[in-house]
Write a structure and sequence with these properties.
By secondary structure, this protein is an all-alpha fold. It has one domain. Helix 3 crosses helix 12, helix 5 packs parallel to helix 8 and helix 12 packs parallel to helix 15.
Length: 469
């Protein structure tokens, strides 16, 4: 076999490994996006006020839960590193500690969200009808906060072991229940009362609880036979069963808890800054009126179609870098990252082309209101330009996190969100009164700025020398 043949085989194996990890995560995100789209489409039939209530209320709730759900990122990083080093007992112990921490944190977050939700709408300056419906939406869906955050940790365990398929199957089941629940509870079908906005929240909360129960069963299942896990035999990207022990979930190991927290906190702060900035920008956009704000919400949902490949390749990047560094194979970590970025860039650019080519038909999937569609078309075309930039930023950020560098992406998010997007959005919308398309120009420019900073951080190479313990 020639040297060229060896390189070709190696590239083929690398792509196979990346896709084995990425495609289930892509489909998993597709299911979540489907539910978000269905929620938006069904609530959109209730009018612009209901759409704004769910949009603004959901932004507040998911901002808070994403912050604490970042424990799933820290869990994946630690578990993947131990799995790569073939320290399977330590990997299991890390997963057990993460689950216990996540559930307790979720209970505290639920109480905070429940009591603070009315104040959020009052501070936002939203119309009274939006405030009333949005508060009900947040309080209902917040009942599932502890299972939601613990579910993040459970998914982090599975991914760290190289299993991205089980989270996919769980998402398929849970989100199918969510769609049926939306249909039944929003409009009063299948013998259920018509609950409107609160019906969407009950459907989401119920599906979250079901997904958590299934995730818990998955991480507690033991590997068949004598093999410690599939990674030991076949390498990264192969499915393994963690086999966590339920009795050890609430038996604290403060060393491991501290390690997971040290990696998770910057990721959580990053999520807080990014989603917090997005929430502030949404508050700015409410001054443009209910129709313009509804158009912004519909564009966000439509744009989310392109997030699926980016998310999948980001998951693959985190897992592969963590496991390769656990092996001590820096060269393979670099090569895997390079190929992952290339594949993500290709697919997200393709989805961007589709958004730019068919903005009207895509927006009509989510709303019938002509004014909302007219204002949304130029914004969706601008969002198409964002897709290749997101591919680079998200995949390289995930690679840094997989290596244990969660602080770098946090600092970059702080600069890009609060040093760039928020001040410009305030100036353009609140001070100068520019229309919605100008806001989207700022959003796209902010992503480009962030992609440049992430690329420079990755190229510096400090991530190659990070030791977790």
């Amino acid at each position: 076999m020639t040297e060229e043949d060896k390189k070709s085989d190696e590239l083929r194996d690398r792509r196979r490994t990346i896709l084995r990890l990425a495609w289930p995560a892509i489909l998993e995100m597709a299911f979540y996006m489907l539910v978000w789209i269905v929620d938006t489409a069904m609530v959109g039939r209730l009018g612009a006020a209901a759409l704004s209530a769910v949009g603004l209320g959901g932004q507040f709730y998911w901002t808070v839960t994403w912050v604490f759900g970042s424990i799933g990122i820290g869990t994946t990083i630690v578990v993947a590193r131990y799995v790569g080093a073939a320290n399977f007992d330590r990997a299991r112990k890390a997963g057990e500690q993460a689950l216990g921490m996540a559930f307790v944190i979720g209970l505290v977050v639920w109480a905070g969200v429940w009591y603070s939700s009315p104040w959020f709408f009052r501070l936002s300056g939203a119309e009274s009808v939006v405030e009333m419906s949005g508060t009900v939406y947040i309080r209902v869906i917040s009942l599932s906060t502890a299972p939601w955050i613990a579910g993040y940790a459970a998914s982090g365990v599975l991914r760290g072991w190289g299993d991205t398929r089980t989270p996919l199957y769980i998402a398929a089941i849970g989100n199918a229940l969510n769609v049926v629940g939306d249909y039944a509870l929003i409009f009063g079908r299948l013998g259920f009362p018509a609950l409107g906005v609160s019906g969407a929240a009950y459907a989401s909360a119920g599906s979250i609880i079901v997904r958590f129960c299934l995730s818990l069963v998955a991480v507690l299942r033991k590997e068949n036979g004598n093999a410690s896990n599939a990674y030991n035999t076949y390498g990264p990207g192969n499915i393994a069963r963690p086999g966590l022990r339920f009795t050890r979930i609430f038996s604290p190991d403060f060393g491991l808890m501290g390690l997971i927290a040290r990696l998770s906190v910057p990721a959580g702060l990053e999520a807080f800054l990014v989603d917090g900035a997005r929430t502030v920008n949404m508050v700015f956009l409410t001054t443009l009126g209910t129709v313009a704000f509804a158009a912004h919400q519909v564009v966000i949902v439509a744009e989310s179609l392109s997030f699926m490949p980016g998310y999948g390749f980001a998951v693959a990047s985190t897992v592969l870098v963590g496991q390769r560094l656990g092996e001590g194979n820096i060269r393979r970590a670099e090569e895997d990252t390079k190929e992952t970025v290339r594949l993500s860039l290709m697919l997200m650019s393709l989805t961007g082309v589709l958004l730019a080519a068919f903005p009207g038909p895509i927006l009509r999937l989510f709303t019938d209101e002509a004014g909302v569609i007219a204002r949304g078309i130029p914004c969706l075309m601008l969002a198409a330009l964002e897709q290749p930039l997101l591919a680079v930023a998200d995949t390289l950020s995930a690679a840094l996190k997989g290596a244990g560098d969660t602080k770098g992406p946090f600092y970059i998010a702080a600069v890009a969100s609060w040093g760039f997007r928020v001040p410009l959005m305030f100036l353009a919308v609140r001070v100068l009164g520019y229309p919605l398309p100008v806001a989207w120009i700022i959003i796209v420019a902010g992503v480009g700025f962030q992609a440049i900073l992430i690329y420079r951080r990755y190229r510096k190479g400090d991530w190659k020398r990070i030791k977790l313990e």
